[in-house]
């Protein structure tokens, strides 16, 4: 009988990418993907970015543990950032956990899973943050047939003082362009029409090459792959962002006019303590350049409130900054101390209650801004790639505009994977609502666009 596995994916898009590659390898080995309640093994791809992210995984490990104690199944493989962060403790504390694999050793997992099922515990942690045993496969078996992620650089060397990523994902290394282009070509052959290039800081792509090949070169090369209709990328870093990226965005029609440029704080004093390497003024200059060159662009950002030492005045600067910047969307979070990072031991930690209060205030302000932005789109016709069912019910579909806004649309299965012209009829701060005016089959679109 075929062995069965389930995937339980947390955290960022890099984990989605790793999840899809693991799916691909295991499916090719003859394993069957099922629901976690039937699986022999559950592979948890985990995140450590905030305490809450880890707590979620720990509570799931506990829940699986109760089932494991009565049935002897499923065993758990804990992979990714939290596996690296908690290491052998996970094996010691939880008998249901049989494998702990850091993000840079994910390539070891497929070969050891059968042993793991026979209760042979293994740990592959990233002791040398430069070493890498990757999965040598494109994500051909995906959670979404039309869209795929591709990691273009591993790790991060920026060491923002609040962030655990450099400790759990290891040192920065760019993947070779030929490898990335080959992978995207394979993805297109397998039905992908939209690809998102991933890195913790895509703007430092290529800095470890000696031939001058940079992120803008890669963006152009990827966007010229025949059959691919949309190219996205994330995350940009204001410290390393350069105008050549804007030029490629403006000149290559397949590159979506959407950019996530995390600002993190509106106070220069706090940005300095965060070790972000830019000022609010420099950030605003970049945004102005982008908006001038790509007027239809949607700019989103990330923001942390309650960083150690954030005084009321710093917080006010952040609110003023949000009003000025008019972002389309902001991913906000209360600062969460991460063991081993410099900020966790900085003086003047902000009390939890105060962080919550500030978070509620920024969310209310930004929700209003996002809503106004979205309301202004009512009556417009936007291009939407329909890529799945809406969270509620199968009579509603969802897709994204080139600017990465989620649109909910009544429709049926036939529309999946199609590019549609959609009339925007309503909006909330999170979603647009619309009706399909016309649709193009992906093969039609190819004829028109190529
Ligand atoms: N590399 C990207 C983001 C990676 S983490 C960048 O440089 O922006 C995603 C987001 O999580 C960050 O932008 C930050 O806003 C948030 N984050 C990271 N560490 C955090 C912490 N300790 N507490 C709260 N939010 C955090
Ligand atoms: Fe974390 Fe900063 Fe690296 Fe982003 S750039 S992953 S916030 S250390
Ligand atoms: Fe989380 Fe690791 Fe991504 S900490 S956000 S899964 S890089």
UniProtKB/TrEMBL annotation:
[4Fe-4S] cluster 2 binds at residues 156, 160, 163. GO terms for cellular component: cytosol. Its EC number is 2.8.4.3. Binds 2 [4Fe-4S] clusters. One cluster is coordinated with 3 cysteines and an exchangeable S-adenosyl-L-methionine. PROSITE patterns: MTTASE_N, MTTASE_RADICAL, RADICAL_SAM, TRAM. Residues 375-438 form the TRAM domain. Its cofactor is [4Fe-4S] cluster. Residues 142-372 form the Radical SAM core domain. Catalyzes the methylthiolation of N6-(dimethylallyl)adenosine (i(6)A), leading to the formation of 2-methylthio-N6-(dimethylallyl)adenosine (ms(2)i(6)A) at position 37 in tRNAs that read codons beginning with uridine. Monomer. Belongs to the methylthiotransferase family. MiaB subfamily. This is tRNA-2-methylthio-N(6)-dimethylallyladenosine synthase. The gene is miaB.
């Amino acid at each position: 009988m075929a062995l069965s596995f389930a995937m339980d994916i947390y955290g960022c898009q890099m984990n989605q990418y790793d999840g899809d590659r693991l799916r691909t390898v295991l499916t090719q080995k003859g394993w069957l993907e099922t629901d976690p309640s039937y699986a022999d093994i559950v592979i948890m791809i985990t995140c450590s970015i905030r305490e809450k992210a880890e707590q979620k995984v720990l509570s799931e490990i506990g829940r699986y543990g109760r089932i494991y104690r009565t049935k002897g199944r499923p065993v758990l493989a804990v992979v990714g950032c939290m596996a690296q962060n908690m290491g052998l403790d996970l094996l010691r504390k939880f008998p249901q956990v049989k494998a702990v694999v850091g993000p840079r050793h994910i390539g070891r997992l497929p070969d050891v899973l059968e042993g793991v099922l026979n209760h042979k515990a293994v740990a592959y942690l990233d002791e040398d943050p430069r070493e890498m045993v990757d999965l040598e496969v494109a994500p051909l078996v995906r959670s979404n047939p039309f869209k795929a992620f591709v990691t273009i650089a591993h790790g991060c060397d920026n060491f923002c003082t609040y962030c655990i990523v450099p400790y759990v994902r290891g040192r920065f290394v760019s993947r070779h362009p030929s490898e990335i282009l080959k992978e995207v070509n394979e993805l297109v052959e397998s039905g992908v029409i939209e690809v998102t290039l991933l890195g913790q800081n895509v703007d430092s792509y290529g800095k470890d090459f000696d031939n001058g090949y940079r992120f803008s070169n890669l963006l152009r090369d990827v966007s010229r792959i025949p059959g691919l209709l949309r190219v996205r990328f994330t995350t940009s870093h204001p410290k390393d962002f350069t105008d050549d990226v804007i030029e490629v965005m403006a000149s290559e029609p397949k590159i979506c006019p959407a950019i996530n440029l995390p600002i993190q704080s509106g106070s220069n004093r706090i940005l300095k303590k965060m070790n972000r390497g830019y000022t609010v003024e420099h950030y605003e200059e970049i945004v102005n350049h982008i908006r001038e060159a790509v007027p239809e662009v949607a700019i989103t950002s990330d923001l942390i409130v309650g960083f150690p030492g954030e005084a009321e005045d710093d917080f006010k600067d952040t609110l003023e900054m949000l009003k000025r910047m008019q972002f389309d969307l902001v991913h906000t979070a209360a600062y969460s101390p991460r063991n081993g990072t410099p900020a966790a031991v900085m003086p003047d930690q902000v009390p939890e209650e105060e962080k919550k209060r500030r978070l509620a205030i920024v969310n209310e302000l930004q929700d209003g801004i996002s809503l106004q932005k979205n309301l202004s789109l009512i009556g417009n016709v936007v291009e939407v790639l329909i890529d799945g069912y809406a969270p509620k019910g199968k009579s509603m579909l969802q897709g994204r505009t080139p600017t990465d806004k989620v649109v909910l649309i009544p429709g049926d299965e036939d529309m999946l994977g199609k590019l549609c012209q959609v009339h925007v009829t309503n909006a909330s701060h999170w979603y647009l609502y619309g009706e399909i005016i016309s649709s193009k089959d992906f093969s039609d679109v190819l004829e028109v666009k190529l």
